[in-house]
Amino acid sequence: MQRIRAIFTLYFFGAVLAAQTAAADEMPSPVPVPADTASLPAAADQQEGASEAIVEPLEIWIPRAARTPVKAATVSPTAAKTVEPTLSPEEREAAEERALLEELLKRRQPKQEHLDDAVPVENRIVLDRTHKRRLAHAAKRRGQVIRKQQRFLRKLQVKQTRGPREVRLCSLNVELFRPLASRKGVREKAWKLYKRRERAYVRAITQNHCTVVAIQRLYGSNYSDAASGIQILARSLERATKSRWEGRAGGTAKGFEHNAFLVQMHNVSIQSSRSYADYPVAGENPAEPVFFFSAPLEMRIRVRRAADESWQELLLFSASFAQGAGRKPVEAESFRMQMAETLRRLVKQRMQELEKQGGGISAVLIDRASGRFWPSSLVLEGRRRLADFLEGGKCRVHEIAAAVPEPMPQTKQKQSTPSRSSAYGFSADCGEAPWRPKIFFGLASESVNAPAKKDRLIMGGNDKEKAEPLLALSKETPKEKNKRTAEIYLAAKDLHYARASEHSFVRYAVRVVRLKSGKKTAPLVTADLNW
Q1: Whole-structure pTM value
Q2: Deepest in the core among 6, 43, 150, 478, taking most CB within 10 A?
Q3: Could you give phi then psi for residue 215, rounded to 5 degrees?
Q4: What distance in Å separates the CA atoms of residue 232 and residue 351, rounded to the nearest whole number?
């Protein structure tokens, strides 16, 4: 029993002691303020219940990069003493966390690097073969587009010096084409051939945007037959172009070949037309007059300019020196020389009359049926006269037969021998007789062809400053140009209306277009006029 009491007494005193200790912890005892600062450490040492636990500073949780010593503020002796506010531990911790956050944000920001434009694309990024191939293809394609645009702008700049064309003249030899109104009495094979030729002529006229077309060698048994035939062609062109066309045909003294005109009636009005079927041809014996086999047709039109609504007079001639069969080559060339002399005089006379009435542009659209340097062509241009080849003249006509190659030697293998050609040519031998100045100039013959790639046309300055390439006018070779018989002639005073640009004096706005069904020596010739 005594033992139980002793245990209970010890338990009671222990509980009381624990309660007193807890109360002492909740209410700290006031620390006495020392009177002198020197006695502060001694008083601190003598204080009872001093805790010996060591509290580590807060900066052990801060990275070393953020541990930047703060410089002490320097105060000048003359300035008043300022007391820096003391920060509480919470405020100091918040400031340190904010400084640490700013430092981390600075490290996360990417560096701003400047890429020079001169550095190639391949050196800026890492590319594989596929990407490099695609980039090379894109750069090549971009270069091609830029060069194409530069060529277009260069051509446009040359064309803008002359402005848009006012009228396009075309000359076409239809080779005895007879337009038909119906299929009545025509065989199927002949009708298919007729429709094929008609489509070819209509396509050539529409695709080349012809305004006035001079037709040579149109078939017609008489004048009314030819007039109805040219109207049939005009209706076909109206269906193809959705615009109005008008046709005029000329007569003939004998034979069945007619010359005609087709005119698109857009800003164009026909003033008059006249056929020279009854006009005698110059010859040796005036008492026995000879007439044109295919009489020239004259037509006078007015073209309205779209810019200022002004009108321009045009005097046009459609002619052909083709002849019927039954003449020897020398006789045929002599008759062509007579027709050329007559036509030159006639056109010159009509030009003088036009000048008295106010002036205009004169053009001859012709199929000479002769080469460029044949005597008949020289007579038409005015460099020679018919009197030069008559009795007492200094010129003689020389016949040039086509060279016939020798047959191939016979061997065991069968070889084809070349066929003999019956083509003839003529030249004029005038000795030392002086050349006369030209009156009419062939635009397609006088204009230059496409030169080599290295050739340039200097537009002013030296070669390095300005050098424009010449544009191709046709794909004719010199040999083909000399053999071509179709031509458009202008007088010397009217040549500037047909120039391709103001800077070129040997290039005219002409084109030579070959047709699939037609003679190679008589293609479609076009010329643009601009005033």
Answers
A1: 0.65
A2: 43
A3: -100, 130
A4: 32
